[in-house]
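Record format v2
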Amino acid sequence: MGLLYMEHNSWLKGWLYRRLGCTSQAADLAQDTFLRLLQAQRKTGEALDLQRPRAYLATVGRRLVYDHFRRHSLEQAYLDVLARLPEAFALSAEDLWLMRETLQQLDALLDRFKPMVRSVFLLSQLDGLTYARIAQQLGISERTVKRHMVSAFEACILFEGDLG
Amino acid sequence: MSGDNGTPIRPEVARQAAHWLMCLHDGAADNGQRQACSRWRAADPEHERAWQRVQRVQERLGLLPRDLAMGTLNRERRQAMKKLLVLAALLPAGYLGYRQAPWTRWTADYQTAVGERQHLRLADGSLLDLNTDTAVDLDFSAEQRLIRLLRGEILVESGADSQSPVHRPLRVATEQGLLQALGTRFSVRQLDGLTQLQVLQGKVLVMPRQGDGQVVEAGSQVRFSERAVKKPRPAQADSLLWTQGQLLADDMPLGDFLRELGRYRNGWLRCDNEAARLRISGGFQLDNTDAILAALPATLPVDVSYRTRYWISISKR
């Protein structure tokens, strides 16, 4: 792993820089990429397939770049909504921090849903709408709503990310 | 996470739990169903763990004010991501890509936006042209030169690869299979569920994911699915004029012409059935598709109506 790091770290940083446009973020994500590989190695207990280390690093790196942008886009949406919520002023710094953490966890999960499945799931869980109402609101059949609910629940159960 | 030891839940258990949850959330569930569900949960600790995982998600959702949760978690993700990537600025434009893996869409090595084209010289001396709305990843190793076509259409002219001590095959991977160049110039287009290959010089070996391989000779074009290669047809060199930003129509049905034109512009382009059967001929500059559309009524008996700049319908006059 040390060798892998020495040989490819600067290449990886350059690769990430081209996608992120920021040197310090690129350096951070390069670290994360190697960290992921270490964890993967530890989990399987085997040495990684180093036939094509750069392809391997790029695959992990791509995932991280995507996550990075996803978190960023969530952050912006969060700030936008907060600015429009009057009661936000009453929230303590701790509450805000908790909400942000919670959002990040849920967002990683919901990002795996197809857009329509996500809408169906949130309308059901946040607004408590019946399947018939959801079907009406989204212009789809009730059967489709049910199918989407099943796949949403299924994804919640199979999600291996961190939900605290 | 009470009771969850982190062991993955088996897919069939997840599926069953999801069905129960869906039924009980309906509000229409009766007592009999509720009791049956309780029995299912108690039957196996794994069932209960699956159940608890959903409860955990619901608890988390419950911590958030409704408007905040809806406004953030249900945001339009693709648009938001696109904007961020544009802000990053150093990327080539165009972010559409792979169906199965959403992130490859945003992070391919080379991509073009709708209406954009790109000409590249690769490290091995190969030339690569990207047509509109195309994304590729390059994966060159000691053993092979692999181009992954994630979306769109490319023209490849394989280079000598003189830097490499051993011969490295040049390959193109698509959703349906692998193509191997046998000294050559060829184009590959990713269609919906099919790959289209056109060989201009040399030969190309086509290997569908699950079917038999086949060599395609210069002057031929084929389409193939995951399972089989369809019958070859003569290549149409005209269809590669996109590399020069041109579209050539020779007595082409207007419907086909508009479909082709639609690849190079954003928005909806529709025409009625009667108009679709009209024939059109001529050479067109793809860099200005607006002008092509505006000029249509001068040569054909059609009306072009613009509901917005991105929603255009064409009907027979």
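Chain A touches chain B through 63 residues (CB under 8 Å).
Chain A has seven helices and no strands.
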